[in-house]
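Hello Y.,

Per our agreement to keep a running log of every chain we model this quarter, I'm adding this entry. I've kept the format consistent with earlier entries: sequence first, then predicted structure.
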Amino acid sequence: MRRQFFALSLMALLPLPAAAHHPMDGAMPQTLWQGFASGIGHPVIGLDHLAFLLAAGVLAAALPRNQAFRAMAGFLAAGIAGLTLHMAGIGLGMTEALVSASVLLAGLALLITKRVPAPALLLGFALAGLFHGHAFAEAVIGAEATPIIAYLAGLAVIQGGLMLGAMALARETSRARWLRPAMGAAASFAGLGFLVVALVG
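Predicted structure for the entry above:
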């Protein structure tokens, strides 16, 4: 189990170009189903987003359950706000670089401290959600209302599921000292790579 998770983490967090890829070959979602499928696909295909979600779940595992849920819900809510801002034409600067920085910071937090204070984690998750959501908006700008709503639902389902899954795994293996530093090292490595690509590319 340990070797499988570590290998999966390294594969998932390799610093490959991480633009907001589209699960339908760049096609704009036209239907409810296409919007939902696109929302499900984006956080998995975009390896920077996937890296953050896995690291975030492990970070949240150190908090009491209600505080962890609050932080993750804050990430999802801020993501909707970020997407809405982008669709309204309001930019947030170098979004891809900021998304990459969130991955790096999550990884460093896992390496540096055993537990991030709940208020700091809530603020960090909210800020990260804002930038991740802003980046996700690229896939649905110009789409109709129905696929956009379905896209948001898909994003919420997959992102919430990934964070909860990572948190559950971290709680179940709380006695295994390798999990937190392994995820921290993988996310830090990936985040740094993503950040270099975002700044240079």
